[in-house]
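VWA domain-containing protein
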Amino acid sequence: MTTNTVLLLILSIVIAACLSYFQYLFKAKSQSKVYWLLAFLRFASIFGILLLLINPIISRTELEIIKTPLPIVVDNSSSISFLKANKKAQEVYEELISNKDLQNKFEIQPFLFDATLQPSDTFNFRGTQTQLDVVAKDLKSLNKNIHFPTVLVTDGNQTSGDDYVYSFDSENAVFPIVLGDTTAVFDLKISQLNVNKYAFYKNKFPVEVFVQYSGKRLSTANFSISEGNNTILKQLVNFTAGQRTTTFTVFLPADKMGLHLFKATISSGKKEKNSYNNVKNFAVEVLDQKTVVGLVSAVNHPDLSAFKRAIETNAQRKVSIIKPQEIKSLSDYNVLILYQPNASFKSIFDGAKTAGLNTLVVTGMTTDFNFLNQQQNDLDFKVTNQKEDFLPSFNTKFNLFALDNIGFDNFPPLAHPFGTITAKENVTVLLSSKIRSIDTGLPLLAFTETGGKRAAYLLGENSWKWRLQSHVDQQSFEKYDVFIDKTIQFLASNSSKKSLVVTHENFYNSGEAIAITAQFFNKNYEFDDNARLTISVTNVKNKQTKNYDLLKGTNAYQVNLDGLSAGSYTFIVKELNTKTSYSGRFEILDFDIEKQFVAPDYTKLVQLAEQTKGKVFLPSQVNQLIQKLLADESYKAIEKENVIKSPLIDWIWLLILIAICLSTEWFVRKYHGLL
């Protein structure tokens, strides 16, 4: 309390005493006890009010004992119950949490973890994911700048996240208590299976398989892939004495369109403790990539045959070479290649615009450029009758679709009239042109996309020589044919905008987040944040339907369908204001990653303990762990002195005392007739 405050308090006492003396004792006829009582009550009231006005700060010192935190973290994932260690985990936790000596020395912090870390003292062992690195990060955040030990009750099996061995702070000891039987048992499993989600009809798609075993010696195992009751593939998998893991790739035929569910199985004649991890389900959707290409030309040229051969190397492509006047209906084609167009192409250009067909325009020495300038707004041609040879130069920044440089720099030149070609907006150049070694800055192969319509321009004839040169360089037409196929694929894709766009996977694994997002656009294709979207999900097998609302996020609406059981589902997303709808389906595969483990990862937990200067214990060694924690002198409680400053105006009792004094004074005066 400052000197000025003390002087003000003394002055307040004097003022209160003087006022109470003057009001009750100075002119009183008799100084009876009643007057002295009233004077005291008035003194207390005035002094209390003056105290509130001065509002002195009262300081007091308190001693606080800060104990070292002791997080006791219990693995709540379903792998604990699968390993039949849930009862033991509960017993270990109870023994630690109830120890009085630990309570006296540490601030015990009970946690559970699976995909996240949560404060809790009850466990159900139903977590579908195990992420131990999250435990490390969250404990660091909760106990910053503190040296503390951690007791980790777990089987050490992690299903996602970073390597937890190096996620924990090396300065804070971790003491893992290993749950589950550490005895090595024979177990054969498919540890990983890589496959693309989509395949094209009448092609073959690869499946990469990782198989491993533990325990007893094994020389061969039987691997198979089946769809329903049909076995598609069978083969032997060979192991050696020093090789417990093997990787191989198999190819499956995509001979039927739609979503296909497959089951990969690995087995041997030996009995296993856990056969769940011998099977892995996966799904592939086979897409129909069939495209009919109309190759329209009024002239005969070797380029036509080269285009047809290159495009039809993909079994899903068919090319029809036709003259402009022979076309009866453009609806028969998905893509048009307009080779050196002239005035006879007028009806084809008009029909393509009406039908929304994408086009590849190839120009050359017989092209009518005045007519072409009238039919499109992507390129402006100002050319002469002089012939020039243009060499290709690959643009490494091209990003409309993935394409490697297949050796364009070695390709022969294309013939084209000399002049200037000006590219307008939305034109992306894949190949620019050179005359000998001089870059012209003019496009040679360019792509555009405007208003949902796509087009490509190849500015030169004699591209058949490119295909031959590619074969000379690569001993195969494959790279050139893939280049042409990707060009046709770009043109065959429908990029038109829809008012309701729904994004979802065709299949999910059990336990994964099942999220479906949707965007709704108004007539100007602007995101409508006032849309009302609902989704109806139906189980194909039992026909049960559930309805949900999609919740609005930043740029999309989303719904999480977590908790659905394995099986096939159809769904309909509806926008209630406009009645717009989208129908789809997805499959939930029966796959529980927590059931893939047959034993605890003892080796990994030992590495963690060594990395953090801790020690691994078994459930039967809990007492040893307790004694080690109690004996460690580095975990001492800290005595902290806290100075607490309280303003007097915060004392509610002072206000109550003033009110009591004023009330008592009034009643005394009333009783004695002094009012």
